Structure formats: structure tokens, C-alpha cells
Amino acid sequence: MAEERIIKKYPNRRLYDTAQSCYITLNDVRDLVLAETSFKVIDRQSGDDITRSILLQIIMEQESGGQPLFSAEVLEQFIRNYSDTTRKGFTEYMRQSVDLFTSQQNTMREQMHKVLAGTPLDAWMKIGEQNIQVWQKMQESILQGLQPKDGK
Fold this sequence. Notes:
By secondary structure, this protein is α+β, with helices and mostly antiparallel strands. The protein has five helices and four strands.
């Protein structure tokens, strides 16, 4: 397994990727998430792990533009479930739901890959072979129908 990447957040709000020795943006961090790269964001001054807050910032940016993933009603439900009595159950439910959704997406991706395996030329070749076989059978039956039955 690859080592966890460390990103340092400086007081000027800039993020520094220690693995690549350069400053990065929140969009670059989002790309790390999409690439399933393991990372941790550390506050440079305090040394605190602030990965969650950076991930929440990314979600906030994505929710503020285009078509949001969460409706106001869903966000209200999230807030209501921050009470101590429902927090643990809600957290586990959300984790299992997201895991199930991800698993189903991966299964669909694998099935589509199998369906679309090969090139479009492969599909055309298979169709062409089937058409030739049908054409040959049709010709054979026509020729059999033209042959005299009594040998004349």
C-alpha cells in the first residue's frame, strides 16, 4: 500500500503537497480523492489533522455551484440527526448506504465494461459473420429447392 500523502495547510490558507513539493488547490485535493489517493491534511501551525474540514470545504464548493447533491430537506435531516440519541445510528446507516451505492456503481461499471469489451470493429465482425452464415444457409436451401427430385 502506498504511503499516506501529507498536505500542509499554512496560515495564508494555502495547501502544500509535501510529496510533490508544491502548492495545490482544493480542486487538486478533490482530484486526489477521485484517484483514491490516501492523504492527510495537517494544519502547519497547530499540527492538527484538518482533513475533514478540507473535505467539507470541497463539498461546500461543489454544493454551491451547478446542481447540488443535497436538497435543503436532506441537509435539515442531517442537522436533526446530530443529536446524541441518533448520531451513532445515523452515521452507521449513512456509511452502509454509501458503501452499498459504491458497490452497486462498481458492479454496473464492470458489467458495462464486459458488454462493451472489444472494439466496435469486433462487434461488426460478429454481426458480419452471423449475416454470412444466414446468407449461406439461405443459398443452400434455394439450391436444394432447384435440384430435381427424381434425379432428371
